[in-house]
Specification:
432 residues, single chain, four-stranded antiparallel sheet, alpha+beta
Length: 432
């Protein structure tokens, strides 16, 4: 006869059942070819969280393990969680909603400034380059990177932000966040040495959206124009960083700061600077005099999207293109009048981020991530009335944050993170 005081064996089957159900749930989420990896990530979180809590409940109450083992194990778990909080910090989330963890005391190594003095001879004065199409003419890269790799000239720490650089001569200008101050900073392109810094009180920060300004500055001659994450439009002297004028476009147009911050880079056109605060009552797209900041015109009523205004010619008419919430719109450059609008991704996926791509033969390519896809539009002008028709649409190129580039009848872009080449004629996609 066995002693009644003998410990009962460990009860493993609940833990195995919980783990098995969690694995099945994860397989059901990730095996299907989903158009939205962000949705898969969001569905994964509760599976892991609930599974972990159930396993913890089993371990502490129903596992039949000795009290000593349970107490020590839980103490180790609490210690590991505490150490994780001490040594790591949440820096934000990727576009697919995956948390980004950083070593809490990580620093950016600073290399000694380069002694290079030559000028590159290539300016990149605004978002996506001279023509806002992510291309540079007459640039040739050495394909032999193993024998002749790119050489790092310098590296310095900068403030938090999502802004890129605008470059003119040896001036490289970007936007940063420094505590409660939004900052415009100018660095020497070839040495990394700071030339000047301009600050004003403004701060955008959310757990999902991250911290700091998002738009890229625009350099026009001796002046640089910036659009902050809270909608502050500023004109500065390129050489000194001295303020020439500034306007709070969100406040004065009755708009509100986008959920992910104001992101459109300023467009310079003749004597005006054009931005998209997304205000009502004909103040969605606004043109200010680039020398004085005076309002020249406003047009449209939709909330702003996350793209930047761009100038193109379609159906023989010069026009400004802009992605707003739930539509792509065209405005007259001289008056701001709405020329045409085309509804696009009008449901929950209103985060239009990628630039519309004008194409030969009066065509326009538009794309959005979040499972939406893309369309190729034909733009016609019949007696000053624009007609928009859809040539084709597909979910094969769902661009989210990275822009699409056109070359020789093909479009190159990231389809929810996968590099693809899309044939404009028959929409056949070659993935790499």
């Amino acid at each position: 006869m066995s002693d009644s005081t003998d410990p009962k064996p460990v009860c493993w089957w609940p833990a195995l059942l919980i783990a098995g159900l969690a694995i099945l749930a994860l397989l059901a989420i990730w095996i299907p070819d989903s158009p939205q990896r962000a949705v898969q990530v969001l569905k994964t979180v509760p599976v892991i969280l609930i599974g972990s809590l159930l396993l913890l409940l089993w371990f502490s109450r129903y596992s039949r393990l000795s009290k000593k083992i349970r107490v020590r194990s839980l103490a180790i778990l609490v210690l590991l969680i505490a150490l994780g909080a001490v040594f790591f910090r949440l820096r934000g989330f990727t576009g697919d909603m995956v948390p980004i963890l950083d070593w809490r005391w990580s620093t950016i190594s600073t290399l000694s400034p380069s002694d290079e003095t030559e000028s590159l001879g290539i300016d990149y004065p605004q978002f996506l380059g001279p023509h806002r199409n992510a291309t540079l003419p007459n640039v040739h890269l050495d394909p032999e990177w193993e024998s002749n790799p790119p050489r790092l000239l310098w590296q310095i720490p900068v403030g938090e932000a999502w802004s890129a650089f605008a470059v003119s001569g040896r001036s490289a200008i970007t936007q940063e966040q420094q505590d409660e101050q939004e900052t415009v900073a100018c660095y020497d392109l070839l040495t990394g040495q700071e030339k000047w810094r301009y600050t004003y009180t403004a701060r955008y920060a959310t757990a999902l959206g991250g911290i700091g300004p998002r738009a890229t500055p625009t350099i026009d001659g001796e002046r640089v124009y910036t659009f902050g994450a809270t909608g502050v439009l500023t004109c500065l002297d390129v050489s000194t960083g001295q303020e020439i004028w500034s306007r709070d476009t969100v406040k004065e147009t009755g708009a509100r700061v986008n959920d992910w911050g104001m992101s459109g880079s300023p467009l310079i056109l003749n004597d005006r600077v054009i931005v998209s605060p997304g205000g009502p009552n004909g103040q969605s797209l606004m043109a200010y005099h680039k020398n004085t900041g005076a309002i020249i015109w406003g047009g449209g009523n939709r909330r702003a999207g996350y793209s930047s205004p761009s100038l193109t010619t379609l159906a023989g008419v010069d026009q400004i293109l802009i992605f707003n919430t739930g539509q792509v719109a065209s405005h007259d450059p001289d008056s701001g009048k709405l020329l045409w609008q085309h509804p696009w991704a009008t449901g929950n996926a209103t985060q239009h981020i990628v630039q519309p791509v004008p194409l030969p033969d009066n065509r326009l390519f538009i794309s959005t991530g979040y499972g939406i896809g893309c369309q190729l539009l034909q733009i016609a002008n019949e007696q000053d009335q624009f007609k928009i028709s859809i040539l084709w649409e597909t979910r094969r190129l769902k661009a989210k944050f990275t822009n699409v580039v056109h070359n020789d009848g093909y479009l190159y872009g990231l389809d929810d993170g996968i590099l693809v080449c899309l044939d404009l004629q028959d929409t056949v996609v070659q993935a790499t």
